[in-house]
């Protein structure tokens, strides 16, 4: 008796570009981190409010690393607050939202904690719960999904 083969999972690299369509983010570079359980999105100017008896959060983010000229202001329903231990070992209570993410033509829901990641190398960290049973990670390669088109700078004369 032979075991039925599981369908092969698509492969992603340790860095990828993703879309967060519900939040109005056309592209953001993520670090795919198999060592992190949860996923985190850079957010600042967090403002909690109530809508129809539910907790929501309005926030801003800079989708491009090391650049602050592009700002996306968005809002999402708060799922819960979760204690998250940072890479430095410090535990913080963070709001958690659920939103759609798009990578390699797949669209699915992920939980994201919101934290100021200005000092981090990536504006978003994609933890293993977000891609479990969906993708395999090639830790030696990047951008299996390609790179977004670059904005052309005007030529100087």
TrEMBL record:
Gene3D superfamilies: Acid Proteases. Residues 11-144 form the Retropepsin-like aspartic endopeptidase domain. This is Retropepsin-like aspartic endopeptidase domain-containing protein. Pfam families: Zn_protease. Coiled coil: none annotated.
């Amino acid at each position: 008796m032979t075991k039925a083969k599981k369908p092969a999972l698509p492969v992603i690299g340790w860095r990828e570009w993703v879309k967060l369509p519900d939040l109005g983010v056309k592209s953001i570079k993520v670090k795919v981190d198999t060592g992190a359980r949860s996923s985190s999105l850079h957010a600042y100017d967090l403002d909690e409010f109530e809508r129809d008896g539910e907790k929501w959060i309005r926030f801003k983010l800079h989708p491009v690393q090391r650049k602050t000229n592009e700002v996306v202001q968005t809002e999402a329903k708060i799922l819960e607050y979760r204690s998250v231990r940072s890479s430095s070992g410090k535990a913080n209570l963070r709001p958690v939202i659920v939103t759609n993410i798009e990578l390699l033509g797949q669209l699915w829901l992920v939980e994201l904690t919101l934290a100021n990641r200005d000092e981090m190398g990536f504006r978003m960290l994609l933890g293993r719960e977000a891609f479990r049973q969906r993708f395999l990670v090639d830790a030696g390669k990047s951008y299996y999904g390609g790179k977004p088109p670059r904005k052309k700078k005007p030529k100087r004369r």
